[in-house]
């Protein structure tokens, strides 16, 4: 079986102190609903674990019901760090789950097709991480606003989500993260930590993450709502 872990437990400092970006309105629906509906439509996903802030668990259950997201099997509270939230989701997976796709609930423009592509990659390679090649020239700055050097953009990719892995590989990676006491900002970094290859799946710039108020306008335009 293949499951998704949709993570929507993070703080939203750039959206305002009290804002929970996953529950902000985008068109006629909450931001989170779009991601859940994409997983609902994906034929390669059998179930979803939804991870939200502790005070949003009941609201998230209601959201899943209202928007017809029957694949959401459990809603659990997250933690103060992404890796804690993902770990909480992993702990909810049954033994018959082979592949898990971790997705940011704040990426509403994800498609069922992209989710499937990452699942197929994980089946073949053990991993499938959505990413786009960087086309801008990237400068390395060590302090202030002074450029130290220019990086070779032909070797640079910006990773997104879904980040999809064989379950045992991701569990081993997270065990190493806990043992070493390090902080990782995505699941691919955890897998890299144990020396395993991470396979990228070409994605699209339209798979945006809601981080600032302007991103809501961009997402609305992309979704044509």
List keywords for this structure.
225 residues; alpha/beta; Spore Coat Polysaccharide Biosynthesis Protein SpsA, Chain A; seven-stranded mixed beta sheet; two-stranded antiparallel ribbon; 7 helices; 25% strand
Task: Write a structural description.
This protein has helices spanning 31-41, 57-66, 82-90, 112-125, 167-180, 187-193, 213-223; strands at residues 2-8, 25-26, 29-30, 47-52, 72-77, 99-104, 127-133, 139-141, 147-150, 157-166, 200-202. With 225 residues, it is α/β, with parallel strands linked by helices. It has a single domain (2-223), classed as Spore Coat Polysaccharide Biosynthesis Protein SpsA, Chain A, CATH 3.90.550.10. The longest helix has 14 residues, at 112-125.
- The CATH H-level superfamily is Spore Coat Polysaccharide Biosynthesis Protein SpsA, Chain A
Number of domains in the coordinates? 1
In the CATH hierarchy, what is the class? Alpha Beta
The CATH topology label is Spore Coat Polysaccharide Biosynthesis Protein SpsA, Chain A
Ends apart, CA distance between termini: 33 Å
Low-confidence stretches: none
Q: Mind describing the biggest β-sheet?
A: 7 strands, mixed
As laid out across the biggest beta sheet, the strand order is: 5-4-1-6-10-7-11
Query: Cα-atom Rg, whole angstroms?
Result: 17 Å
Number of helices: 7
Structural class: alpha/beta
H/E element order: EEEHEHEHEHEEEEHHEH
- Quaternary form: single chain
Shape: globular
Named CATH architecture: Alpha-Beta Complex
